[in-house]
Amino acid sequence: MTVNAEVRDTAKLNRWIRDTIIIFAVYIVLMISSILCAVTYRGVFVAVAILVLILMIPLIAVYAVVAAREYHNTWMTNDFELNAKDGAIYYGEKRLHVNYSRETDVLYAHDLGSFENPNKASIYMTVTGEDKVRLMDYLNDNGIGIEKEGLIAGISRYRRK
């Protein structure tokens, strides 16, 4: 069965995190060097150090907005071929757990293995709309149970809105 689902583009997310770390590292080096120069030489470096410290506030505010936008931009929609065998559903060779959230009316399929380590999931699909209904029917036809929506410690209750 082919299902259209939303997944996280981890490569794009990792690139963005790397770029953010580099930008903040350069800024911190600039800040520390300006403070050290201000202590050592005084004069114009004091003004530069104060300016760099003051500019940290808008930098953090702007990056908070950019971070929220980039987080949402790392979601992509793809088609996935799912197969039912041995009383479970598989994506390739990965056995998936399927959860349904009544509150958000969303079906989640993931390979977490009893919620042991959500940070190590290689696939985490969010299925909505007509594909959710078709997948639920496919699961029912093949006798595969939908697990109760469980909460992962440290993860938002509504993973993706």
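Second entry:
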Amino acid sequence: MTLSKILATTAVVGLMGSAAFANDINFSQSGGSVGAVTFTQTGTSNMISSNGTTIAAPATVTGSLATLTLEQIGSSNKSSFSITPGAGTVEVPALGNVALLLKGSSNTSSLTVNQDATGTLDFSVGVEGSNNSVTASITADNSVVDIESRGDGFTYTIGQTAAAVDAANSITANFVQSGTGAVDVEMLQSGATNTITMGAPSAYGLFTGTGGMTLQGTATVGITQSSVNASYTATQTVAPGGTVTIAQN
């Protein structure tokens, strides 16, 4: 399926695929102002990108998109988005919200956002299952990331960048591991004020939880905050052999 420039204010795309018949969505928005776009895929080996072939070619947004929702339920599903919004206004924000829900195993999602000088972004992540991977690189004056993750063996790479003197970034995350699979969590922040809190995030999806970061297997966690004001607060349990490295500068 191919969706090029969207003219409507709201679009909903829902597809179901199997191992034999995966659904591939080619998506791009070039200009215009869209209120909300929702993608829902159920099954195996579905993909959302700019060409439906590889997530190395991300789906692109260069106009104004207020809300993007991505839901992939199943296994080995992939999505990749690169968003460079146009200049926003008070009435029509260039980009306001991205919500991601992954339920199943071996799903992969990648998000890159280059927001305009006055932009804000709320990124809500809900993941349940094993061996799922989420990568996000966010450039915005103010961005908020909420993560709710339950399952075994996962990878998160979250980067937040802001250049303004009054910029603020925050991450609130709840990682609860159910097994002993490999875990890799990397969080990097730059800007005037950076905050990371492990425990009781706002949840997106069908489950909620508390407990901060509970990692049962071999875990590598890296926290890097480059700012004048930085804070890391965590309720955390990491099994022997795991490492948590925190750098604030």
